Structures are given as structure tokens and as C-alpha cells.
Amino acid sequence: MDMPASTIDSIEQTRFDKEKAYVPQEEEGKAFFDDGREIELLHFVYGHPSIEKIRGSPTNVLRAIDEYGRTKKYLMNVGDDKGRIVTDLISEIKPRIMVELGGYIGYSALLFGDAVRKAGGKRYFSLERNPEFAAVIMSLVDLAGLGDIVKVIVGSSAEAIKRLHAQGSLEHIDLMFLDHWKPAYLTDLKLCEHLKLVTPGTVLAADNVIKPGNPPYLEYVRSSVEKKRQVNNSEHTNGIDVKSSFGRNAEMYKGREGEEKLSTEIRGNPNLVYESKLVHSFEPTGDPDGVEITRCVGVAE
After folding, report:
1. Is 271 in the active site?
2. Which entry of 77, 208, 214, 269 is annotated as an active-site residue?
3. What pLDDT sits at residue 3?
4. Catalytic site residue 235?
5. How many of the other CB atoms lie within 10 Å of CB of 84?
6. Residue 112 · residue 104 · CB < 8 Å
7. For the purposes of burial, counting CB atoms within 10 Å of the CB of 21, is it exposed (0-12), middle (13-18) or buried (19 or more)?
8. Mean pLDDT, 10 residues at a time, over the chain (301 residues)?
9. Are strands 150-154 and 288-299 parallel, antiparallel or unpaired?
10. Residue whose C-alpha is closest to residue 94's, from 152, 172, 174, 170
């Protein structure tokens, strides 16, 4: 089940339209999120002169968010360019159940939730640790008229996944978008493998694999089954050297939410066979980035 070359070729991007760029991300040492701009965004959208045209329209809500990001303050959204990579996947895969890890202010939930609904899907779970960000997502999802498809779950990604699975609300993931705390990409994937939520047919789309980067995750999804088995049978734990691998991004949520805990006890399923490819694109600011598209294609004997 190789991913069609035409799909990847059509979404690979080499140029960025500078006219639609967000304002630059704040320099290192200065806050670029969780400083009040998320609530300011809500006031901007609900106070917009075109609010009546925005109501009930995911596209127009997204346009209002982009307008804020281009004229007011930077927002760490997936953006239009990388977002198109995932919406093309949704059109191809037609996922019944899609999960995103890390919702922030709801840009991806609006963009992808709308695409899932148009593709005939049943549910889009948006997992967000910060309750204030989750409230922003819920408000904008309601404004866009996507409450029938998008379900926002508040709490750490690992605990939310476990809870949804235990409740029987999440039995299989058709498409998963990873855009949360970067050190948790790998451990949360292994948790989903362990719970049999990720199986042959599942597709993963991991954001920010270039900026800021995620070497442990990329190494895992690009490794052979043999190599994963060797690591799994070694004395290594599932732990990650967070600070050396991720720099300042490792502690970006610590001040407000407290220190994040990784599910280091879960080893995942090394027998799953992945085919993975980096699709180059851009951050909303125009900075180069990419999305790693990974398809689970089988289980090794």
C-alpha cells in the first residue's frame, strides 16, 4: 500500500507567497504564545466587521485567524501551506476517525475537521493540554459550525489517549496529526501502537520536523523493523534526552502547565512496518519546515 506518488508530488512546495506571511515569531527569550494573544484573538474574531459572514463558515473563521496572524501577532498555527498537505491526505484517505495531538487555538481543528466532515468522516478528536487554549478551540469550533464533528479533549495527550481508549470512544486511528510537545511525538506514537490504535492502514502526519525538528521521532518512523527490535530488546529505556534533543522547546509549556511527563514505560510495537516521507513546506511566517507523512503498511512476522 504505497502512497501514490502523485499525491506527494502535488503537495510538495518550493515557493512561499510572502504577501500572506504572518508577522515573525518573537526572538528567543520572548514569549510567542500564552501571553494573552490567544484571548485577544477571540476578541478580534468576534469583533470582526464581517462576523455575520464568519458565523457557520470554517473557511471564514480561518481567514479571520490568518488576518490576525498577519496584522497583529504571531500564532503558532500549522498554517495554510502545511495545512494543505494534510487536507490532501484527508481527501485521499477519507478517515473515519482522525486525532490531533496539540490543538492550540483550533486552526488545525477547523481546517482538518471541516475536511474530515466533507470526506464523510465521523469524528475529529482535538487533544489539548492547556484548558484556556481548549476553551478557545471550543469557541471557534462552535462559531464555525463544526461542533457535530470536532470533539475537544482537555488534558495531557497520553492521559487523554488512554482515557478515550478505556471509554471505548477511540478504538482505531485512521489519521493522526502530531503537533504538540515535541518530545512526546515518539512516546505517544508508541502508546498508540501499544493500545492497537495504530495498525496497518493508519497514516501519521507529524508537523515541525524541520523547525524545530524531531530527530528521535524521525529515526523511529524511518527505521526498519529489525532495527526497532534491536533497540527494543536492548537495555535502553523508552526515555528521551529531552534537553539535548529539543533545546528550549523542551520547556516551552513548563511555566504554565508544569513539567510534562513522558510515558517512558511503553515500548510500542516494533513489528509495525512504516513507509515514511518528508514533504517540504513552510511555516505561516515563510520559514522552511516540513511534514513527515508516515503510513503503516503491515506487520512483520
Report:
1. no
2. 208
3. 44
4. yes
5. 17
6. no
7. middle
8. 45 82 95 97 98 98 98 98 98 98 98 98 98 98 98 97 98 98 96 98 98 96 97 64 52 57 82 98 97 98 90
9. unpaired
10. 174
Cα four-point dihedral sign 208, 209, 214, 219: positive
Q: What is the pLDDT of residues 198-222, one digit of tens each?
A: 999 999 999 999 999 999 999 999 9
Q: Is 77 a catalytic residue?
A: no
Note the pLDDT of residue 93: 97
Active-site annotation holder among 151, 182, 190, 228: 182
C-alpha cell read off for 188 = 505517544
- Structure confidence at residue 234 (pLDDT): 75
Query: Are 183 and 245 contacting, i.e. CB atoms less than 8 angstroms apart?
Result: yes
Residues making up the chain, counted from first to last: 301
pLDDT of residue 2: 45
* Nearest-angstrom CA–CA distance, 178 and 142: 23
Angle (deg, nearest 10), helices 131-144 and 107-118: 40
Is 207 a residue of the active site?
yes
Which residue in the list 179, 188, 283, 289 is annotated as catalytic?
179
Alpha-carbon 115 to chain mean position: 15
